[in-house]
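Structure (tokenized):
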């Protein structure tokens, strides 16, 4: 084979290789499908408080008074996203209403100064989530927090704390209720004014706000 034929065959071989490489791009089967109308919709959290008269008012109070279920707030999430309950108690607004009356003046003089109702009244904040388990809130004065603890028994004196200790506190974690059930639970406000309370709180009053916040679980 002369040199000219070798060059032609070599060129032909290169051309065939190039053809197969180029043609291979179109040699596979193919199919195309389209997914239409894909939609993302944000869920909702909607906290509803019901079954009580708001605001909660206790008047008049006297030593020995107590109520283990004075206010029962039924909390529901009417949205479609599971949530946990967070609670905060605002600062107390206090009023020394008995100033000038002889019994209170004498009593407070013996105690070394004014003593407000918030320093005598004991309060329990409880949550029954409807599963047979109850919880109560413990105020931590050191860091102004509220801590969820098991046992929501309103008859247990260990679940009661001075109202003054709840001032400006809030939960750092959500309640144990984390499922998507609409029923978050029943939040109860209970109180006790101990028998040993003296004249130092005659005519005194205090008020506060409780804020409920539902957060995504």
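Design, position by position:
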């Amino acid at each position: 084979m002369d040199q000219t034929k070798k060059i032609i065959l070599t060129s032909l071989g290169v051309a065939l290789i190039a053809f197969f490489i180029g043609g291979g791009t179109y040699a596979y089967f193919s199919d195309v499908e389209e997914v239409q109308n894909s939609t993302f919709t944000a869920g909702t959290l909607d906290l509803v408080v019901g079954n009580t008269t708001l605001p909660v008012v206790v008047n008049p109070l006297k030593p020995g008074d107590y109520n283990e279920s004075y206010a029962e707030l039924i909390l529901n999430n009417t949205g479609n996203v599971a949530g946990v309950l967070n609670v905060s108690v605002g600062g107390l607004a206090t009023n020394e209403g008995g100033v000038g009356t002889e019994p209170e003046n004498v009593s407070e003089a013996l105690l070394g100064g004014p003593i407000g109702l918030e320093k005598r009244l004991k309060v329990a904040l409880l949550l029954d989530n409807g599963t047979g388990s109850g919880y109560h809130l413990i105020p931590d004065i050191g860091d102004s927090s509220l801590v969820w603890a098991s046992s929501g028994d309103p008859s247990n004196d260990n679940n009661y704390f001075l109202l003054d200790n709840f001032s400006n506190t809030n939960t750092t974690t959500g309640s144990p209720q984390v499922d998507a059930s609409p029923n978050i639970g029943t939040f109860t406000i209970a109180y006790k004014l101990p028998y040993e309370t003296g004249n130092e709180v005659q005519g005194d009053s205090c008020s506060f706000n409780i804020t409920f916040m539902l957060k995504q679980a």
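Reviewer-requested clarification: The chain is about 15% helix and 35% strand. Residues 7-12 have pLDDT under 50 and may be disordered.
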